Amino acid sequence: MPKRNDLRKILVIGAGPIIIGQGCEFDYSGSQAVKALREEGYEVVLVNSNPATIMTDPHMADSTYIEPLEHDTLAAIIRKERPDALLPTLGGQTALNAALELSRSGVLDECGVEIIGARADVIEKAESRELFRECMANIGLKMPASGIAHNMDAVRKLGRELPFPLIIRPAFTLGGTGGGVAHNMEELETIAARGLSASPINEVMIEQSVLGWKEIEMEVMRDKKDNCVIVCSIENFDPMGVHTGDSITVAPVQTLTDAEYQKIRDASIAIMREIGVETGGSNVQFAVNPENGELIVIEMNPRVSRSSALASKATGFPIAKIAAKLAIGYTLDELRNDITRETVASFEPAIDYVVLKVPRFTFEKFPGAKDELTTSMKSVGEAMSIGRTFKEALQKGLRSMEIGAPGLGDNFRAPLPSRDAILENLRVPNSRRIFAMRDALLAGMSEDEIFRATGIDPWFIRQLDDIVKMEKRIRDFGVKSDMTPANPELAEILREAKEYGFSDRQLAEMWKRPEADIRRIRRETGVEPTYYLVDTCAGEFEAYTPYFYSTYERGSEIEVSDKPKVLILGGGPNRIGQGIEFDYCCCHASFALRDAGITAIMVNSNPETVSTDYDTSDRLYFEPLTFEDVMNIVEKERPDGVIVQFGGQTPLNLAVPLMRAGVPIMGTSPDAIDRAEDRERFQALIEKLGLLQPPNGTAMDLEEAQAVARRISYPVVVRPSYVLGGRAMAGVYDDDELAAYFQEQVPKKPEHPILIDKFLEHAIEVDVDALSDGNEVYVAGIMEHIEEAGIHSGDSACVLPSFSLSYDQVARIADQTEALARELRVVGLMNIQFAIKGNDIYILEVNPRASRTAPFVSKATGVPLPYLATRVMLGKTLDELDPWSMRKGGFTCVKEAVMPFGRFPGVDVILGPEMHSTGEVMGMGKDFSEAFHKSQLAAGQRLPDSGTVFISVNDRDKPGLPEVAGNFSDLGFRIIATSGTAKVIADAGIPVEVVSKVHEGGPSIVDRLAGKEVDLVINTPSGKHTARDSRAIRRAALTYKVPYCTTLSAAKASATAIANRRKDNHVESLQEYYSRERA
User: Fold this and answer.
1) How far is CA 361 from the centre of its chain?
2) What gap in Å lies between CA 877 and CA 881, rounded to an integer?
3) Which residues pair with residue 98 across a beta bridge?
4) Please, what is the average pLDDT of the chain?
5) Hey, which of 407, 540, 644, 1028 has its CA 20 to 30 A from 860?
6) φ and ψ at 125, to 5 degrees?
């Protein structure tokens, strides 16, 4: 069937901010879909609230709305744009739920909009737990025994009827949000209450657990002609009970018999037919009983899923692109495979290599969070690795994580934990269980013992055992043998070690030699990697797309050209502090290189992103971002330059070792980066330019730290050197807190000094992005933070242009930015953080690289900063590029951070110098109040128009209290407060009602939140370890979905936004904002 000609304009809904369970996989799939639809000549209207993604760049869609993804805003866009169709299957659960709501409310019928990609009834059948169970019964497939509950009474009834442990699965949520495993009635009540609250239709399924069964996922596509393709089969390393996003996963499946695989394949196709998916991709999850092969269905997603990005990158089959083309009428047999150019899309991919996905966790960011994996997803990113064997892919995947592990084994001479400690780490799934499995094997535990403790398939245990045995052989060889290239056995064991995925760093540690020695010996003995193509068809057809992975076999599938070329180092797995913003910069670097006629080569290990799409760069290497792996590519390709300043801290950490190895680093020199990162050199730089920085010092132990803190006076901010995302950074108010910080965060003998800075209380923080060519400087954006200094810049809302800075302050900040850029000879991007206290402007930190604000500033001003920075690195001057003439204005943008606190029960929701946010949204409007209001709505905080505001603040915030309380009182809100706060408000002549604290008896504030009697919470924590009371209040606000502010500045901004809220739902595309005359 050819494409539909009755459609002209198609609306695509994106996934919104990056959150746990819905990462940038959906920006990758959404971007691919938008490109595919425009390629076919359709006009594309895109709605997405996320500024950090390539998808919301103005060149991607015809009309780009950076607006909140909620019903009324989407309805306003539909009424204004009048699209013919809506494609909701590429924006994760967010887009799917939004489309269903628009369908139920009648907006789509009113405007004559058709849902394409999946009909509303298909979505309902797959997503509603009850309807899906009926469909499975129709085709004779089993599901676990279960029941549906819409309230707590029904939950308790099911708890009495079904045997524990029980799995709680909320309907219409993503990443297992609100779900979990309950082992008794008390746990069931706690988790189910959370699940009912998380489900938009207050529905949870409570099902009999199949903990310990194998979990298998199938990525399937089906078209209107009933062509069905299994794109990829994926097996979880962990058994059922761990969310698939938190488990290491392997493609293709490794441990099923042929008969078991065929049974699952047939069931997947039968499910697609029964549910009625006929225009796109779906993901189906199964459980297999390891004892008898019994098969049950867990769930299906009638959309492109989180695993689709992994499946696309693993096979080279572009699921999202094909799904978009099926949605507009094509069938699989009419579409060509881009990689082979010969086979059609109905030709099922076959792969002759092993692909692993390894999840990345950041439990250390959330004190109080248990490192325990359940059915509710907690990982914040992932890396993908490709090898010829599971062993090779596993070790490559583990060293891609950047958690200090060079592979499965390290610290080879460390004593083993006790047997009891090892067993404890095996029994409870956690982020480091795979390393505990190595300990178990070294301690002599049997395969059966490990299987009984973990439920992990014996085949995987044997693979780890092979690696551990090889580790022992390598160590013994180093002790007993001649370690010169003259020994022929050395080349043999080196090659074998490499085939098992061992890194040079591991070999160096085992053989007690420098890593550079291992590299030299490898080269002298001819043990070097070769590169193979990802080709979708196991080498049966020629592949045209240069998309490579390394291995240590004898063949080669790479041809190196001598054209001018540049290597771009990506950011590796997403994590808090280093996310999609850096991928955005890498993509722009690639676009700029191609436009300049230079071959763009991307190196990255992240399968979720646009930078690792097969058509973003001229060449793609799916490899770990370690010195060894990058140098192997450099030696093969011999690039004219390497770009390290766009991928965050990951490539920056490689800049100096690469430079020492003679690799040409493009843009700002690594020495300038060191001048900004090294405390003493930075201090000298500030003094040389006559600028100010907060009083500070460094310390190697607690005694020194307390002396420094007393000299500069408390409060102080403490942190380790060389970190990203405010890792282990804290505000400290006295000697006791400093001692507690050292005990919790500082090793006995730290390698680098601990940095101590005076904490500037009640200062305004300002973020500046600038672009320099080494001489000229373009100040791209001066962003004012809404939260005061002391809250990590990644977690603070910020405004462009600034809303309270004077003309003089802005001019002084611009002058200081230019002076710093010239002194550091920045070539490319830089970011500076300032704090303004009174008339003084302090410099907090300087980063001569792309920062996480680069995409936001690019969108808010219309100037593509990373693209221009790449042109500058290639030799263009700013006078030639003229960014000043590109700048757009006449509107205000607010960036707001999105927090994952709901994923970590028991963690306090306060903000501080350590970064917690996983993503961001942007609000655009004619003024600050409209933009701020939209940013809150996009971040999931619906500010109330009226009702009751609860206020409780710490003593340091009490001077600013009358102004905030007065603002809300003037707007007609009823104010309730705890006794101390109420007294300050009443003394200012503002009506207030006292409410009990939790321990005071009677209906407390937590009871009122539970009873939905409060519409907004303003609660600022004390600097000391926050009292249990205020923590309980903030958790209750989160649980019962009451908007909350944990700083007075955010409360003031909220009052301003509520006071100036527009009555109409005003929506405008990025292209319309850019066409305004600057005000």
Assistant:
1) 10
2) 6
3) none
4) 90
5) 644
6) -65, -40
